[in-house]
Amino acid sequence: MKAVAFVVILVMSLSALGACGQGEVKERVEDTVMRTSSEQKEKSDKEQRAEEIAKDFKEVKGAIAYDTEDELVVAFHVTQYQKFFTEKIEKKVKKALEKEFPDENVVVSHDLKIRLEIERLRRDVEQNEISEKELEKRIEKMKTLREEKA
Questions:
Q1: Which residues, listed in sequence order, are joined to residue 64 by a DSSP beta bridge?
Q2: Which of 26, 45, 54, 80 has the most CB atoms at less than 10 Å from its CB?
């Protein structure tokens, strides 16, 4: 009889402890999810659309975009067979992006260095590991990389 009473009291105590704070935790989790998803959406609407436009071309295997204050930079890579025609594909992608974003200065590149720099920059911005000064410095570096190509 004492064992049954002990089990009932133990179950009731664990239930009471388990119920404490569930609402708070749920609220905090929802706040974090909402804040994170809204920040990412704000940041990447134009970039997301630019990537989709570039990927719509059958020759393009993958694309990544980064929107700076004064220009939209899109880097892409093509399938193995299409590497001989990258300049032609680059012009087609740029034309489609300029049609979609007429007010933007669109820069399109198939250069691997630029694509890697955009990936690193995006990752650092998402993780808040970069200051404004460092961000400007790395954007300038991307511009330099583009000029090296030409």
A1: 75
A2: 54
Q: How many CB atoms lie within 10 A of CB 47?
A: 19
The torsion angles phi and psi of 99, rounded to 5 degrees, stand at -70, -40
pLDDT in tens, 112-145: 999 999 999 888 888 888 888 888 888 888 888 8
Q: Which two tokens stand for residue 54?
A: 């570039």
Task: Look at residue 40 and tell me whether its pLDDT is greater than 50.
Answer: no
Predicted confidence (pLDDT) per residue in 97-109, tens digit: 999 999 888 989 9
SS3 112: helix
Pairing of strands 106-109, 72-78: parallel
* Higher per-residue pLDDT: 31 or 145: 145
Distance of CA 50 to the CA centre of its chain: 12
Tokens encoding 47 = 């970039």
Identify which of 66, 68, 64 has the alpha carbon closest to the alpha carbon of residue 52: 64
Q: From CA 50, how far away is CA 118, in angstroms rounded?
A: 14
